[in-house]
């Protein structure tokens, strides 16, 4: 994942926004009415699915860990894989998805 790609930059902004959140803040509902932790996990799953498609491997569920404080790390890892294996159009689409979810938190 290069600091120059839009996905890395957008994920960095999202992680900067949520990285210090406490469990009650993760559990609170965002603008869409979905708990924030669920929204970020759904984003992580969306990114993981696109990465699997780009790599030509089966889609697998991303584990939902007991502690939402791990979500920023999961997001970084999955986004790094997608930035590495996805083409420019997919990376741009993923960056837009991250921006959209960020706006809903």
From TrEMBL:
Annotated protein name in UniProt: Uncharacterized protein
Lineage per the UniProt record: Bacteria, Bacillati, Actinomycetota, Actinomycetes, Micromonosporales
